[in-house]
Design goal:
Structural class: alpha+beta
Shape: globular
CATH architecture: 2-Layer Sandwich
Strand content: 15-25%
CATH topology: HIT family, subunit A
CATH class: Alpha Beta
Distance between the termini: 44 Å
Number of strands: 5
Radius of gyration: 16 Å
Order of helices and strands: HHHEEEHEEHH
């Protein structure tokens, strides 16, 4: 079964800006994004803390799909230093609070795939998915055409999540 594509013209700007030389496999895509000389608005980073950051998924399952990652590129939870682990999970919690406020979902999926065999598409840099879900969000496009539709541009989603981020966590 293959997943069909739905043209989203508003994403041309995101795809066109690139993140780095695609042949550079010495760093994960997330590390390359962090090393870009671009603003958080341009890269869709919605929050940074001492040891981790939160970014919109470029290919979201639903509007508001966030990824929470340590700055340091590690593949496994046990490789995190205690302060990195604490910071990462605090940002997962804050991401759920922000999404509940910004997008009022009926539920959230929070998950992590450790290793390629577990479905980790970028297994070298662990990341926690925080995905808003709504009752009935499996619409006809997903059910009939194996295609997802995203109703708002990433830039709008990012601004909504930033505005809803819990205060006092800088």
């Amino acid at each position: 079964m293959s997943l069909d594509q739905l043209w989203n013209g508003w994403r041309t700007q995101y795809v066109g800006q690139g993140t780095a030389d695609a042949s550079d496999d010495s760093q994960s895509v997330f590390t390359r994004i962090l090393n870009l000389q671009m603003s958080d608005e341009e890269t869709h980073i919605v929050h940074r803390s001492a040891h981790s950051f939160v970014i919109l998924n470029a290919y979201p399952y639903s509007s508001g799909h966030l990824l929470v990652l340590p700055f340091r590129e590690v593949a496994h939870l046990e490789e995190l230093e205690p302060e990195e682990s604490l910071d990462l999970w605090q940002n997962v919690t804050h991401a759920t609070v922000a999404l509940k406020k910004s997008h009022t979902p009926d539920a959230l999926n929070v998950g992590i795939n450790l290793g390629a065999a577990a479905g980790g598409s970028i297994a070298r840099h662990l990341h926690v998915h925080v995905v808003p879900r709504w009752n009935g969000d499996s619409n006809f496009m997903t059910s009939v055409a194996d295609t997802r539709t995203i109703p708002e541009p990433l830039s709008l989603t990012a601004s909504k999540v930033r505005a809803a981020w819990p205060k006092g966590d800088q």
